[in-house]
Write a structure and sequence with these properties.
This protein is 30% helix and 23% strand. By secondary structure, the chain is of the alpha/beta class. The mean pLDDT is 92.
Length: 246
Amino acid sequence: MSRPVIGITTGIETPKKGDSRQIVGRAYINAVERAGGCPVILPMVESREVLAPVLDLIDGLIITGGPGITDGLIGVLPDDLLPVHPTRAQTDDWIFRGARNRDLPILGICYGMQFINARFDGAIYADLQAQLGKCAHSPRRSEQRPVRHRVHALADTWLARLTGRPGEPLEVNSFHIQAIEGPGNGLRVNAVSGDGVIEGIETEDGRIIGVQFHPEALPGTVWDRIFEHLVAQSRAGANRETVDRE
């Protein structure tokens, strides 16, 4: 059985000296490989047209974690959260729109979930602690100690079906300072934390799923199924396109 090609977005580093660098955690690559997909790292570019040949090759998309979202922002980014680099913001938008034009399945992780919500006209709190009075959801706010908490996958959602444990508490990691105010148009909430923060969103057909935590960093857990779902949908779509061409 052929492996569907899963495009993976990247972050950008801009050192004080030298050229900027694209970066991506290997955990994303490993998660796609374990799930049966072929991971492909997508480039950051200056021209939308340059992306077209690459986007024609992919069967699914992962929008990875990153810095501060500025679209649909409620409030001002705190000092300990840098805004997303303009090159990444523009390239991510081009990639997302290209994937949507082909109705590809999409998984958004942390920044990626917030990015998707903004594309659907959803609003995002700049600082969930300061604005909502919540406890720290990021190691940056807990003296670099790992942050873990529980989430509940809501009944009758794709995430609940994937975990097989609707309503039960499930442990996740946590690295975010921002939080979405509510699901954008056409999206619904699929998970919340114990303190009421929205931890997941999805479309009704499950073609787009976003999670606020980092499932790629939780191998061997129920969260592997998120990547398996993405790969399965990507494979089905690739097979349909092959049949259509024939």
